[in-house]
Automatic annotation (TrEMBL):
Annotated residues for binding of ATP: K10, F58, R86, T92, R103, N113
Active-site residues, Swiss-Prot/TrEMBL: H116
The protein's name in its UniProt record: Nucleoside diphosphate kinase
Catalytic reaction equation(s): a ribonucleoside 5'-diphosphate + ATP = a ribonucleoside 5'-triphosphate + ADP; a 2'-deoxyribonucleoside 5'-diphosphate + ATP = a 2'-deoxyribonucleoside 5'-triphosphate + ADP
Coiled coil spans: none
Location relative to the cell: Cytoplasm
Chief subcellular location: cytoplasm
The species this protein was found in: Terrihabitans soli
């Protein structure tokens, strides 16, 4: 079924000017970018977005990293978009990511891992709402 997922191209990727290379992977997989904006997250925004990780040891570093530079937030649409984008991204830790995935080919570390993607359809809906108004999404 046609589905939407939420993506962040992270500060390590905007810093290296490789956002186009990453979007090419997304589009080549048959996912369509139906919303997109370049933003610099505030600390409060990053803390709320990653609130589920608040108790984890890496939370502070994760928030610092996510506000260290601009990011590109996007809504991706396509058949089975949530699972498909997870396949295109590869494992969270680039050391474990399969060949040909975004994280294998571009990520610097488990923290600076170039992209975020929703982990399920419900999370996707919540994450999309966090950054986009309905009229900013154009299919
Ligand atoms: P993301 O999909 O954005 O969701 C949470 C992020 O936390 C994850 O990608 C990683 O970038 C980061 N993360 C997960 N585990 C660790 C870890 N052990 N150390 C540092 N960062 C981590």
């Amino acid at each position: 079924a046609v589905e939407r997922t939420f993506s962040i191209i992270k500060p390590d990727a905007t810093r290296r000017n490789i956002t186009g290379k990453i979007i090419d992977r997304i589009e080549s997989a048959g996912l369509k970018v139906v919303a997109s904006k370049r933003i610099h997250m505030s600390r409060a925004q990053a803390e709320e977005f990653y609130g589920v990780h608040r108790e984890r040891g890496f939370f502070g570093e994760l928030v610092d990293f996510m506000i260290s530079g601009p990011v590109i937030v996007q809504v991706l649409e396509g058949d089975n978009a949530v699972a498909k984008y997870r396949d295109v991204m590869g494992a969270t830790n680039p050391a474990n990511a399969a060949p040909g995935t975004i994280r294998k080919d571009f990520a610097e570390s488990i923290e600076a891992n170039s992209v975020h993607g929703s982990d399920g359809p419900d999370t996707a809906a919540t994450e999309i709402k966090f950054f986009f108004k309905d009229n900013e999404i154009v299919g």
